Amino acid sequence: MTFRLGLTGSIGMGKSTTAAMFADEGCPVWDADAAVHRLYSQGGAAVALMERAFPDVVREGVVCREALKQIIRRDPGALHKIEAIVHPLVAQDRQVFIDAQTAPITVLDIPLLFETGAERYLDATVVVSTTPEEQQARVMARGTMDAGQLKAIIQKQLPDAEKRTRADYVIETDSLDHARSQVRDVLGYIKRTRLHA
């Protein structure tokens, strides 16, 4: 059975870049956000269920994320209903992916890993981290949100310090070379100490 390594980190910490580094080292990578995208797309398993719960959110056979955001803004309680539909489907998608793997280590990219309790299903967790200044600079450079929106997102996520405490491994994403060497160190350590010979 493949070793399940959960990867997480707050917005702007370099999680996607680090996930690509794990893939470069030969690890299959499952992406929770991509799974939700599949579930919301035409023919996705969440479409009919979401339409039943929120008739206005499905447009041309696709769940409209903007419409969902508006519903949540109007009714914060709607988020629990959405999660009750989506989380079991995401877990199912994740399990199908894991079951199909033959590689020694599989990486599961889960933005809200600790927030959703997903660590219960994993063999180890790694968090990516950088300074608050670097985090803000990266997100602002994307040009998709302002400082107020970023602050609101950060406040909804588990604090970086707590993620670092709870994770088995921490990867500092202060530079690409340093991050890549830490990815290799983590994989080497797991192979030496956690994989059955």
Report what the structure shows:
The protein is an alpha/beta fold and 197 residues long. It has two domains: 1-28 and 105-197, Rossmann fold (3-Layer(aba) Sandwich); 33-100. The protein has nine helices and seven strands. The strands form two sheets. The chain has a five-stranded parallel beta sheet with strand order 2-5-1-6-7, sandwiched between helices. Strands 3-4 form a two-stranded antiparallel ribbon. A hairpin with a 2-residue loop joins strand 3 and strand 4. Helix 2 (32-40) crosses helix 5. The protein is globular, with a radius of gyration of 18 Å.
The percent range for strand residues is 5-15%
Overall CATH architecture of the largest domain:
3-Layer(aba) Sandwich
Q: What summary fits the major beta sheet?
A: 5 strands, parallel
| Widest sheet: strand ordering | 2-5-1-6-7
The CATH class name of the largest domain reads: Alpha Beta
